[in-house]
Amino acid sequence: MPAPLLSLPHVAVELPSRLFSRRRLAPVRPAGQPGPKAMAARLARFGLFSDFPPHCLARLAAATRVQVHGAGDALWHQGEASRRVLLIEEGLAIASRRVREGVSRTYGLYGPGDSLGLYAIWAGMKYPTDALALNHGLTVLALSSSALVKCVREEPRLLEPLMEEVGRFTEAFLRKIDIVSAGTVQQRVAALMHMLLERYGVPTGERAASLPIRLTLEQIGAITDARIETVARALAEWKREGWMSNDADGFHFSALSRLKDELGD
User: How far apart are CA 193 and CA 223, in angstroms?
Assistant: First the structure.
């Protein structure tokens, strides 16, 4: 993971519609399931399992499947029994909750290296939120919760990394609070981009970076609790000013200091 890009002191109205096209995408499916050793190696890349002994990883690998999802796919629904933990290898997912008929609110944003579902399993509760794929091609390792619980019961020393991962679930919730409490819609969108750049940004210059993630206006609006039209106006203004652009590869920022200014710190 690259060092944070924004270590400085603390995206349709005018955008071409082709950048936010709603073309039908082909269903996504994993090319195949890896063998036991390859699956164990993929699990071990996650901090949660970095200290798990080989025999535990082998048992967990046997209870894990690779899943690939399209944008908008439901990973599970609020109230379902918590039977699996999802470990994100590629793409973004959100946790949302229905607050009233036809209205949902986003409560967490998760990306590569994050897990989903562990909190519910640890608390012995049903999934408290819906979980949805935000991007086409979201790739996750779906691990049976019963296999994980059995492994930890037999190896109590593995409890500590599990508790650290539960803490990261809380961090994702707090990141969401930081975004929606940032102030104006423009500041909220800036806070979202700032957070994504810190975690997934790719440096392209001394004070420039790209975010290799495609987000639609609807998705940005859901995360920032803002109307699509207002989000579009904010992004259009940045584009007119010349320091932000977006295309099929994601978002590109030629002056990170301008994004910092938008935060209003």
Answer: 11
Cα–Cα distance, 101 to 241 (Å, whole number): 40
Q: Any idea of the CA torsion for 239, 241, 243, 248, to the nearest 10 degrees?
A: 10
Tens-place pLDDT, residues 216-226: 898 888 888 88
Q: Which residue in 173, 134, 169 sits closest to 48, CA to CA?
A: 169
In the chain the domains, ranked by start, together with CATH numbers, are: 36-178 (2.60.120.10), 182-263 (1.10.10.10)
Distance CA 155, CA 135 (A): 36
Tell me the CA distances in angstroms from 182 to 2, 107, 192, 222, one per residue in order.
25, 15, 9, 15
Name the token pair of 116. Answer: 């989903």
The residues, ordered by sequence, that sit 6+ positions from 137 with a Cβ below 8 Å of its Cβ are 28, 68, 69, 70, 90, 91
Helix (H) or strand (E) holding 251: strand 250-253
DSSP character for 3?
A: P
Its pTM stands at 0.71
What are the DSSP calls for 140-204, one per residue? EEEEEHHHHHHHHHH-GGGHHHHHHHHHHHHHHHHHHHHHHTSSSHHHHHHHHHHHHHHHH-EEE
Per-residue confidence (pLDDT) for residue 177, from 0 to 100: 66
Residue 36 burial (CB count, 10 A): 14
